[in-house]
Amino acid sequence: DFLMPGCLYRYEDFRDEFEIPITRKYDNAKLETLQKMVRPFILRRMKEDVLEDLPEKLEEVCYSRMGETQQKLYDGQAVELMNDLRSGSEADFRKNKLRILAQLTRLRQICCDPSLCFDDYKEGSAKRETCIEMIKNLIEGEHKVILFSQFTSMLTLLEQDLTEEGIAFYKITGSTPKQTRLEQVKAFNEDDTPVFLISLKAGGTGLNLTGADVVIHYDPWWNFAAQNQATDRAYRIGQEKLVTVYRLIAKGSIEEQILKLQKSKKKLADNILEAEGISSASLDKDDLMTLLEYDPDEVK
User: What average pLDDT does the segment 60-77 reach?
Assistant: First the structure.
């Protein structure tokens, strides 16, 4: 669209003509038409084709069930947002989209740890407990771990937990100076420090962390490609070990729905170009309603 404006129509038209039929209705005829439109302009090389000696990468989704208090806080926030979406018109949605996306972020933070939203919350977080227990088990197995989160405040909480457990770690966020980043990366690849905490955006590019063989994504990011790019800090040239990637998901929450939405968007992107995934700005009202829906019986 940047090189040839209008070739794929306006986004609204593209969505109605191709994206919805392909991702929601699995319309192969539409998919074939779109492939024919873009194929002459695309050259794609896959990492697996270029790096034949790269070890295997395993990916696993790990679910945790929120405790009663955490679940109540989540449900209350979700119901409030759902009611706002149902009662408002399409014009209201467009007008208030920034506020709605902020509410979505709040829901995601509750999944991570409600104390990110509520200063007086002291009941704990199922996912946080699962994460620390997983790290302890991985260290016992002599693995080295990179942990990514979008929320630097969540990294601060995990930093407190690791300190209490006597687990050594390094940490990089957007505010970490470049020289300090380079020094920590070099040290992590050479010493016995088992954990590296990194904010997702700070760790997207420029870091070579092949000393690690486990990657944990504490919270799912809208853009699947951004997660993959972060994973590739370990899964890249120079990696000699099998790499395991864990994605931590709160059961029966918006996080579970993000995975499903990622999958449908990724399928379209994979079929056409590459896994660029989605961004919060591209979500429409129907997408958001889908994100908020879940079967309470599945959570139990």
Answer: 94
